[in-house]
Amino acid sequence: MRILVIEDNEILSRNIVRYFSSRDIFAEIALDGRDWLYKASTKYYDAVILDLNLPSMNGIDICKALREKEKDVAIIMLTSMWKNDDIVYGLDSGADDYLVKPFDYSELLARINAITRRKNINKSTTIIHIWDLEINLQNQEVKKEDIIIPLSKLEFELLKYLAQNRWLTLSRQDIYEKVWWEFDGDFMFSKTIDVYIGYLRKKLWKDLIETKKWFWFLIK
User: Fold this and answer.
1) What is the mean pLDDT of the chain?
2) Where are the domains of the chain?
3) What separation in angstroms does the CA of 129 have from each of 85, 146, 170, 207?
4) For 161-186, b where at least 16 C-beta lie within 10 A, e where not — what string?
5) What is the reported pTM?
6) CATH fold of the domain at 127-218
7) Which residues contact 29 (CB under 8 A, 6 or more apart)?
8) What does the alpha-carbon distance between residue 185 and residue 171 come to, in Å, rounded to a whole number?
9) Which candidate, 21, 70, 147, 151, has a CA 20 to 30 Å from the CA of 110?
């Protein structure tokens, strides 16, 4: 999972990033609207934590722009503005959730996980988005930045299985049983998965799939 923290309080921002990093979640900071504009135009994020009172650009405007650019991104407003009208205004602007300061870090992460799970379930039957990839399960088609990437049937099935189980660590046995269901060799020593992982990295991008000895999972 990739998270962007848009918060001008540098101490709070770094504490949030430190908490996520301790749980092996990638997170980075944008301290103002200009910084956000640069990062959002060059990278994809699964979730955005957004303060309302920011220098150079209002948090509500950022939220609306985020929602227009990335319809599936999870947006949580994190602010000291606690009045009911503020909360309604924030949610109506496109936020998925609203958390008032001070807050508990574990609750923040739980809310992000809940939102991303719902979004992945809602779109899992048709299209899955991972960074700049669009995986169409119905048409068995993969696009990268709107360009169709030709994949073999096995390459697509492997990518599909990993994408549908994003953020879960999958063993070689898991993958063989779900993708190579007719395989009757010794999965612990076969190089078949290594070869196809290499194909996907070469066709899509090299950091797509992270490797941990006998386990594989999509980059977070």
Assistant:
1) 81
2) 2-123, 127-218
3) 33, 12, 19, 16
4) ebbeebbeebebebbbebbbeeeeee
5) 0.56
6) Arc Repressor Mutant, subunit A (1.10.10)
7) 4, 5, 6, 7, 10, 13, 14, 17, 35
8) 16
9) 70
State how far the alpha carbon of 186 is from the alpha carbons of 15, 173, 179, 193, in Å: 46, 9, 15, 12
Strand partners, 3: 27, 47
Q: Which of 22, 1, 163, 4 is nearest to 75 (CA)?
A: 4
CATH for the stretch 2-123: 3.40.50.2300
Between 78 and 188, name the one with better pLDDT.
78
Strands (E), 156-214: 170-171, 209-212
C-alpha distances out from residue 15 to 29, 114, 153, 191, Å: 11, 21, 44, 42
Strands 47-50 and 2-6, by their bridges, are parallel
- Residue the block writes with tokens 């899955």: 128
Instruction: Give the integer Cα–Cα distance in Å for 75 and 46.
Output: 9
pLDDT of 203 = 92
Report, as an integer, the average pLDDT of 61-79.
81
Q: Are the CB atoms for 219 and 210 separated by under 8 Å?
A: yes
- Two tokens at 32? 């103002």
